[in-house]
């Protein structure tokens, strides 16, 4: 069954809320400028995706939209798992980037 705009928005929102909730701790865990830029990028891309999702209908359908939603849902789960396992920030950064990139992708495809 196809996902609806509510499920899509909720997953995009989960990405942004993770970025917002963990921003200070993530920044405090950085050990160099590249890590700080990566944390900033995660927060800003997640925030942008959330703002765009608020303004978009997210109603377009299609296999590519469903795949983007499933990929984002999996990426957010990977971030939650990594955070609960207290992974080092350096190990977490790739998961954060993937989640925010997929949030932006889902908005672009579903809007």
Task: Briefly say what this structure is.
With 111 residues, the chain is mainly alpha-helical. Helices cover 83% and strands 0% of the residues.
Mean pLDDT: 96
What kind of assembly state do the chains in view correspond to?
single chain
Largest sheet: none
Spell the H/E element sequence.
Answer: HHHH
> What ranges have pLDDT less than 50 throughout 5 or more consecutive residues?
none
> How much helical structure, as a percent, in the residues?
over 70%
Can you count the helices? Answer: 4
Strand portion, in percent?
under 5%
SS content category: mainly alpha
| Rounded Rg | 14 Å
Q: What is the end-to-end distance?
A: 19 Å
CA-based shape: elongated
Q: Please count the beta strands (DSSP E, at least 2 residues each).
A: 0
Describe the overall structure.
- The protein is an all-alpha fold and 111 residues long.
- The radius of gyration is 14 Å and the shape is elongated.
Summarize the helices and strands and which ones pair or pack.
Blueprint: H1 5-29, H2 33-55, H3 63-84, H4 89-110
List keywords for this structure.
111 residues, mainly alpha, 0% strand
């Amino acid at each position: 069954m196809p996902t609806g705009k509510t499920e899509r928005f909720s997953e995009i929102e989960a990405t942004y809320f993770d970025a917002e909730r963990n921003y200070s701790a993530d920044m405090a865990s950085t050990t160099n400028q590249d890590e700080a830029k990566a944390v900033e990028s995660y927060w800003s891309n997640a925030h942008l995706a959330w703002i765009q999702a608020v303004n978009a209908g997210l109603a377009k359908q299609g296999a590519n939209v469903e795949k983007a939603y499933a990929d984002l849902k999996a990426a957010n789960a990977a971030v939650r798992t990594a955070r609960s396992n207290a992974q080092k920030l350096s190990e977490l950064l790739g998961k954060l980037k993937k989640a925010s990139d997929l949030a932006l992708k889902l908005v672009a495809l579903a809007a």
